[in-house]
User: Fold these one by one.
Assistant:
Number 1:
Amino acid sequence: MFTNFKKNLGQNFLRDKYYLNKIIDCSSFNIHSNLLEIGPGDGALTEYLNYKSKSLTLVEIDKDLIRILSKKFELNKNLILKHIDFLKLNLSEVKKDNLFIFGNLPYNASSQIILKILESDVVYSECIFLIQKELALRFAPEYRKSTKLSMQTKLLANIEILFDVPNTAFEPVPEVTSSVIKITKDRKYIDNSIDYLKFKKILQVCFSHPRKKILFPLKKIFSTIPSFSFSLDKRPEELIINDYLEILNKYGKQI
Ligand code: SAM
């Protein structure tokens, strides 16, 4: 078993079989689905995925783990191992029908990996990711609070937290709790009239001082504040997606 864990690659391996099973059970893929696993590590989740599907691609950055995975699995055209940084991977290589993406993601690159997939044109059926709970709550905040990340990703997908995984399920044991999230593509809030890059810039300004009233960042965006359907006394976290789309819309009309 692999023990030479590299902290800089976020290597906390999920060892608890209960949670490995639970991750598999919460997904709706079947034997005909195309699966992609990001950061397979030494192949704990991979074993389950490989057993339950005919087509699996693994993307791993660490050459020591590539060596272990090559020995552990019989690689062929249905079980492909790619030695590459996922952030540098050309996603056209993984464009497939009926695609399900899995990963116990490295904590230091989780949000970049998720945004790379969400912002791409890859058509996935579902992503199931294990990430730090704190980050999961930024993607899918509780109590109807908004965050910059939740508003940004709301345009691209639906993200829900399924369950938590205690730190004792991992080796080495991290300091924090993790959560399993499910992502499904949902572009109901975005159409051709929406400039996503401009939307991101507006969010950046609005959430730069989360404790101040929304009037404060709006003064930086508009030379004259237009009338809005929401109260300008609200804080950025109290605004919902339609409020931010209204800001974008009125910003577009200003210039
Ligand atoms: N899936 C394994 C498990 O659950 O036991 C390992 C999960 S570990 C948290 C993260 C894995 O992602 C490690 O195998 C690490 O080497 C790999 N990794 C880290 N950064 C990566 C990147 N940019 N691209 C691909 N793999 C990466």
Number 2:
Amino acid sequence: MARSAILNVMVQAAMKAGRSLARDFGEVQNLQVSLKGPGDYVSQADKKAEEIIYAELRRARPDYSFLMEESGVIEGVDSQHRWLVDPLDGTTNFLHGIPIFAVSIALERQGQIVAGVIFNPAMDELYTAERGGGAFLNDRRLRVSGRIKLVDSVIGTGVPHIGRGHHGNYLVELRNVMGEVSGVRRMGAAALDLAYVAAGRLDGFWENGLSPWDIGAGIIMVREAGGFVTDFDGGQDVIESKSIVAGNEAIQRALVKTLKKPI
Ligand code: IPD
Ligand code: CA
Ligand code: CA
Ligand code: CA
């Protein structure tokens, strides 16, 4: 399916930033790194990639607003359109030489996500989705997995880092899920976790405490691949609630129940 003009702009921005990340990944030991909080790193590579994305998107749509991980909010004349930008999802992986990281860009129109792009330059995998137009990995249309039983499923998750709360809750969630599924994976990049759900590689995913830039593109990717995404209570306003449960219909529903089981 042909991409819209705006999706092409997002793809160009993500690929340009991705190439910059790939170059920096080869020289990772020379990068300047600073701490934003306990366990929460940012490097020159994150900042450079964000500058590239900002310049590309700004040039194409000068009026749109931005919410970016490293620069925060930049209000444009048009507040109905907002870019959600994570220039490097998986900074910890990146800084440890683990090639599981991605650029993630989403576009919101009047609070609804209408397009998303996730690009993993190390694997040359480009995920794209537009509302009503399906989700794609490079040129291949995506479909969530067909497994319907938790016992057969592989589920992704994100473990809160040292500076984040919810650890007690997280251990209960993990124990509940571990007891019912075939395997649990922690890849370290939420945008890719969601892209993998869309691609049917993971049957489901859950994480708490994520930000709009981590999940904006991933949410539309999963939904356009025929999957379901809610918060931990089954609600649709995932970005607001910061908690996310994704998967095919059967696994997503079962996961929401399993996560909540009392000790
Ligand atoms: C992080 C990754 C990670 C998730 C963290 C995020 P960053 O994003 O998505 O998988 O567990 O909560 O903050 O900081 O590498 O862009
Ligand atoms: Ca970060
Ligand atoms: Ca992120
Ligand atoms: Ca990031």
